[in-house]
């Protein structure tokens, strides 16, 4: 088993400084056992498990760059006349928040790149969380026992969006001020408490003199603290419950297979962190983002056409554009049309996402624990529901930029709006049906390959003159020549050069599988045998 | 399957190699090593040296990028210069981005390559220990919790339960009252008025001014032209309450003034071919600022609501429901020159709707 070059030194008394300090710590804190447990935690290896990592690393980049920015940013709405080095705005009256953002961008050496890295990292943070969540959804990783982590993850996503909006409103430029104005209109639209809430948030009538200072403390302290705590909890639960993994030979519900946290996984993860940070740094330097000096300071009388929020807000912008002008006035009270697409719709979407694991468990009467994932094709209803929701959100997302599309393609703006309205109603059900059919088709193809084997591309002419294509069976066949291997919830090899991957424990590596190692197969077979005996014994005991 | 190997005693462990002791520890944690192999069993082979050099050269390149970053950071000019002067400062941030990106990415790729090609290859299986649930533990912990509840006597002392509930409610509510009470501001009728409201300093009506404070005269605008105007009072253009001020003054083409379908009692709110509407969209509060004088339509660029000026700024497309509020215009003569004034405030709340709006 062990053919390594680890020095054959005895594990005698520690002699090095590191070893002695280890003993020093252990004598005081007695953490040898839990530490070892953490170091030996096994991480399965699959590219789709890296999405959450990207989110975590972007968060770290956000903390680092954000702390730097806070040394220079002045969260005040007090008036000041700009006198910095950006000549086009000299002499313009603006808030200190806007002026200090200009200062960071033009007068602090390296300030602009850190500001831009921060903004890019925020976009990536939310995007990575969303994609991570989609991975969890489509593979069924949210099922028992992981419902709580699903809810924490959803909370993180929502808080991430709020945090992003708060941060993007801080510079008090024309674009973000317009966003705040719309946010105020959204708050005002809430029945009964809207006006009072708006006055509470803004300290009086919009814009007042308070909002930037308040958003600042929300952005740098309140939400980051909650985010950090929830991320810690999310990871602690993940460590406690251990990773899910895709089904495959050697994979069982009661084990997890992969590499240990220390040393290989942590080396890879650290490397991945630096790659994420490096790409964000390159984006921050090369791709301009939020050039607030081009927008000018906020002025309620001005707006630029083609104003676009950050990407995660585009969906709400789209729903606002598409929703009809249905303002209701009853008994001397107004419920503005804005209320439905900006308060009710996100509320319903978030509520549905939160309830989904429980709804699915209830409807499918599934109370079992699940540590092995499902392939999306094997759960066509869930996959199709997901596709439906994604399509709905995508139509709204595109409609958030419908004026830009109308302009670029010379389409009537009104036609874009009507197209979006119709598409939100028609496309999601269509996506459901299409996805459902695709899932069934993929399922059938898996069964077909299991039964008839892989197409070899070899055409054979029989003595009778008939032409047939030779199929390579994947395993043993019955008397009719049909394969007897059952579908096991894992990928079925469908090309000749994929043959053998079905027996592989792990298709490691992004581009090529690691070759099968006979001793792995043996070991796993032994473990599986032990597992079977164990569960039989358990079954006997409980009977 | 249980992961506990009969724990070896310390003396036995000390006799082991580090690798054996590591594996013993992993077994104790329910982690089974199913495969472990040095990627280069023969030390110092050419392949190993090549792999090592590849990793090391990535680290060296990363360090070089870091040095170059410092040089650029210190030496390249970064201050903004107007066109006509040297524009070299434009390379500052992109250069920093490339170098910082290289420094970090190369380090990252190096670390991953190191892990993949040089570190000991291994495959492990870890027991989850989550099935079956630990029955005895559950029973004992449950019993501890329940017996604690009985020890406090809570189930039979309802007086304490209720009074404690009251105290708990108070303790939870007071901080909320402090927070909300401090933040709360009574809206009152604030949203029903703008700074065009009658002001004793201006008995003849509120002067209408441009953003720089100059008064607006009918001669300033060409037919078909527009201007954004404000109440000429303190804080009317800038200031915490100025968000409701922006007003769009439109000079229609000759004769169009008569075509405006004014609401009842508002026929004399125009002044010749001039009309004035609140610029704040009645949908979400953006300034509805795109005016097309040929079609006499106003477009709000935020959510594309469109208003027909000749129909008293009625919404004709998009999510807005209400017409833009109209401002009554009048003209006063000062030193022989005509200037616009607003004899009264808007007669309805401007901007987005809210609950108390009737």
Write the layout of secondary structure elements.
The complex is a heterodimer of chains A (543) and B (358).
Chain A: E1 2-3, H1 17-29, H2 32-39, E2 42-43, H3 51-70, E3 79-81, E4 93-95, H4 96-106, H5 111-139, H6 147-169, H7 174-188, H8 194-202, H9 211-241, E5 255-260, H10 261-286, H11 292-295, H12 311-322, E6 328-330, E7 333-335, H13 339-364, H14 380-399, H15 402-409, H16 413-452, E8 454-461, E9 467-472, H17 518-542
Antiparallel strand pairs in A: 2-5, 3-4, 6-7, 8-9
Helix pairs in contact in A: 3-5, 3-10, 4-5, 5-6, 5-10, 6-9, 6-13, 7-8, 12-13, 12-14, 14-16, 15-16
Chain B: H1 10-15, H2 18-28, E1 31-37, H3 46-75, H4 92-117, E2 121-127, H5 135-152, H6 158-183, E3 206-209, E4 226-231, E5 247-251, E6 274-278, E7 290-292, E8 297-299, E9 306-308, E10 314-317, E11 330-334, E12 337-342
Antiparallel strand pairs in B: 1-2, 3-4, 3-12, 4-5, 5-6, 7-8, 8-9, 9-10, 11-12
Helix pairs in contact in B: 3-4
Q: What characteristics describe this protein?
A:
heterodimer, A: mainly alpha, two-stranded antiparallel ribbon, 17 helices, 59% helix, B: 358 residues, alpha+beta, six-stranded antiparallel beta sheet, four-stranded antiparallel beta sheet
What would you note in describing this structure?
The complex is a heterodimer of chains A (about 550) and B (about 350). Chain A has about 550 residues and is mainly alpha-helical. In chain A, about 60% of the residues lie in helices and about 5% in strands. Chain A has helices spanning about 15-30, 30-40, 50-70, 95-105, 110-140, 145-170, 175-190, 195-200, 210-240, 260-285, 290-295, 310-320, 340-365, 380-400, 400-410, 415-450, 520-540, and strands spanning about 1-5, 40-45, 80, 95, 255-260, 330, 335, 455-460, 465-470. Chain A has a two-stranded antiparallel sheet with strand order 2-5. In chain A, strands 3-4 form a two-stranded antiparallel sheet. Chain A has a two-stranded antiparallel ribbon with strand order 6-7. In chain A, β6 and β7 (about 335) form a beta hairpin. In chain A, α3 (about 50-70) packs antiparallel against α5 and α12 crosses α13 (about 340-365). Chain B has about 350 residues and is an alpha+beta fold. Chain B has a 6-stranded antiparallel sheet with strand order 6-5-4-3-12-11, with no helix packed on it. In chain B, strands 7-8-9-10 form a 4-stranded antiparallel sheet, with no helix packed on it. Chain B has a two-stranded antiparallel sheet with strand order 1-2. In chain B, α3 packs antiparallel against α4. Chain B is flat and about 110 Å long. Chain B starts with 9 loop residues before the first helix and ends in a 16-residue tail after the last strand. The model of chain B has no long low-confidence stretch (mean pLDDT about 90). At the A-B interface, β1, α5, α7, α8 and β5 of A face α1, α2, β1, α4 and β2 of B.
């Amino acid at each position: 088993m062990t053919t390594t070059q680890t020095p054959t030194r005895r594990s005698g008394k520690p002699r090095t400084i590191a070893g002695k300090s280890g003993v020093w710590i252990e004598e005081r804190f007695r953490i040898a056992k839990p530490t070892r447990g953490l170091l030996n935690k096994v991480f399965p290896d699959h590219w789709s498990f890296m999405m959450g990592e990207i989110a975590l690393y972007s968060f770290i980049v956000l903390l680092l760059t954000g702390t730097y920015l806070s040394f220079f940013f002045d969260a005040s709405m007090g008036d000041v006349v700009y006198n910095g080095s950006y000549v086009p705005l000299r002499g313009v009256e603006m808030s200190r928040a806007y002026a200090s953002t200009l200062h960071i961008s033009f007068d602090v050496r390296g300030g602009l790149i850190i500001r831009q890295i921060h903004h890019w990292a925020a976009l990536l943070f939310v995007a990575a969380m969303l994609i991570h969540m989609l991975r969890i959804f489509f593979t069924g990783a949210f099922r028992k026992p992981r419902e709580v982590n699903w809810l924490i993850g959803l909370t993180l996503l929502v808080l991430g969006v709020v945090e992003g909006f708060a941060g993007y409103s801080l510079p008090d430029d024309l674009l973000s001020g317009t966003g705040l104005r719309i946010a105020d209109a959204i708050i005002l639209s809430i029945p009964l408490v809207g006006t009072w809430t708006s006055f509470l948030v803004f300290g009086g009538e919009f814009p007042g003199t308070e909002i930037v200072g308040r958003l600042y403390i929300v952005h740098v302290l309140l939400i980051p603290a909650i985010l950090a705590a929830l991320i810690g909890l999310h990871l602690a639960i993940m460590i406690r419950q251990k990773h899910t993994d895709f089904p495959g030979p050697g994979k069982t519900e009661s084990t997890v297979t992969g590499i240990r946290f220390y040393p290989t996984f942590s080396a890879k993860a650290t490397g991945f962190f630096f790659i994420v940070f490096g790409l964000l740094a390159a984006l921050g330097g090369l791709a301009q983002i939020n050039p607030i000096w081009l927008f000018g300071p906020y002025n309620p009388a001005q707006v630029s056409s083609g104003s676009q929020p950050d990407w995660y807000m585009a969906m709400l912008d789209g729903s606002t554009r598409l929703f009809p002008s249905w303002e209701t006035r009853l008994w001397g009270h107004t419920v503005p049309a804005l209320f439905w697409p900006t308060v009710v719709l996100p509320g319903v979407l978030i509520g549905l996402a939160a309830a989904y694991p429980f709804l699915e468990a209830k409807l499918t009467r599934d109370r079992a624990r699940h540590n092995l994932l499902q392939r999306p094709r094997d759960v066509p209803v869930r996959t199709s529901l997901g596709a439906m929701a994604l399509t709905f959100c995508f139509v709204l997302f595109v409609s958030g930029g419908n004026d830009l599309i109308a302009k670029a393609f010379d389409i009537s703006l009104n036609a874009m709006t009507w197209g979006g309205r119709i598409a939100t109603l028609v496309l999601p059900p269509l996506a459901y049906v299409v996805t459902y059919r695709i899932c069934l088709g993929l399922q059938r193809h898996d069964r077909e390959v299991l039964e008839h084997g892989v197409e070899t591309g070899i055409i054979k002419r029989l003595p009778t003159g008939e032409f047939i294509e030779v199929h390579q069976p994947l395993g043993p066949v019955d008397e009719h020549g049909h394969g007897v291997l059952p579908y096991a919830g894992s990928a079925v090899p469908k090309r000749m050069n994929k043959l053998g991957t079905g027996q592989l424990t792990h298709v490691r590596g992004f581009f090529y599988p690691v070759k099968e190692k006979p001793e792995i197969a043996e070991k796993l077979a032994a473990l599986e045998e032990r597992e079977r005996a164990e569960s039989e014994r358990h079954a006997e005991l409980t009977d | 399957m249980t992961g506990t190997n009969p724990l070896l005693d310390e003396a036995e462990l000390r006799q082991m190699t580090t690798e054996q002791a590591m594996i013993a520890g992993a077994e104790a944690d329910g982690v089974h090593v199913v495969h472990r192999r040095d990627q280069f069993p023969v030390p110092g082979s050419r392949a190993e040296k090549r792999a090592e050099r590849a990793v090391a050269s990535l680290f060296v390149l990363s360090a070089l990028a870091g040095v170059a970053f410092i040089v650029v950071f210190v030496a390249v000019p970064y201050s903004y210069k107007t066109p006509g002067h040297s524009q070299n400062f434009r390379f500052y941030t992109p250069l920093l981005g490339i170098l910082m990106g290289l420094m970090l990415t190369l380090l990252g790729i190096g670390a991953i390559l190191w892990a993949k090609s040089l570190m000991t290859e291994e495959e492990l299986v870890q027991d989850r220990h989550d099935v079956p649930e630990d029955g005895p533990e559950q029973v004992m912990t449950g019993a501890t919790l329940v017996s604690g509840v009985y020890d406090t006597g809570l189930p039979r002392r309802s007086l304490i339960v209720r009074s404690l509930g009251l105290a708990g409610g108070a303790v939870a509510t007071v901080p909320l009252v402090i927070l909300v009470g401090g933040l709360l501001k009574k809206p009152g009728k604030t949203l029903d008025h703008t700074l065009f409201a009658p002001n004793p300093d201006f008995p003849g009506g509120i002067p209408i001014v441009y953003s720089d404070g100059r008064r607006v005269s009918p001669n300033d605008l060409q037919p078909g032209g527009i201007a954004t105007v404000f109440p000429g009072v303190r804080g009317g253009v800038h200031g915490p309450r100025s968000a409701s001020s922006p007003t769009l003054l439109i000079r229609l083409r000759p004769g169009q003034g008569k075509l405006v379908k004014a609401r009842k009692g508002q026929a004399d709110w125009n002044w010749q071919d001039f009309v004035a509407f609140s610029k704040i969209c009645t949908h979400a509060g953006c300034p509805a600022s795109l005016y097309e004088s040929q079609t006499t339509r106003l477009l709000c660029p935020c959510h594309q609501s469109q208003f027909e000026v000749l129909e008293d700024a009625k919404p004709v497309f998009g999510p807005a429901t209400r017409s833009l509020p109209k401002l009554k215009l009048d003209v006063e003569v000062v030193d022989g020159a005509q200037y616009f004034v607003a004899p009264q405030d808007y007669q309805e709340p401007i901007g987005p709707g809210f609950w108390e709006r009737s």
